[in-house]
Write a structure and sequence with these properties.
Strand content: 5-15%
Radius of gyration: 17 Å
Number of helices: 1
Structural class: alpha+beta
Order of helices and strands: HEE
Number of strands: 2
Helix content: 25-40%
Strand order of the largest sheet: 1-2
Largest sheet: 2 strands, antiparallel
Distance between the termini: 43 Å
Shape: elongated
Oligomer: single chain
Length: 57
């Protein structure tokens, strides 16, 4: 039973980063999210506004 739990945990830990991948506002060269604007858009660390359709809270 312990081996089964260890294998399941290992699979979960290995697959979690793969599931978390995807497009996120201000990813890549934009450096990540710096702040939210008053109209709910994402302000990136490079000073640009993200074109994401997601709303920043």
């Amino acid at each position: 039973m312990n081996k089964f739990l260890a294998i399941c945990t290992a699979i979960l830990l290995i697959s979690s980063p793969a599931m978390a991948k995807g497009n996120k506002p201000c990813s890549g060269k934009k450096g990540g999210i710096k702040a939210c604007t008053s109209d709910g858009k994402f302000l990136c660390k490079d000073g640009t506004i993200s074109k994401s359709k997601k709303v920043c809270k």
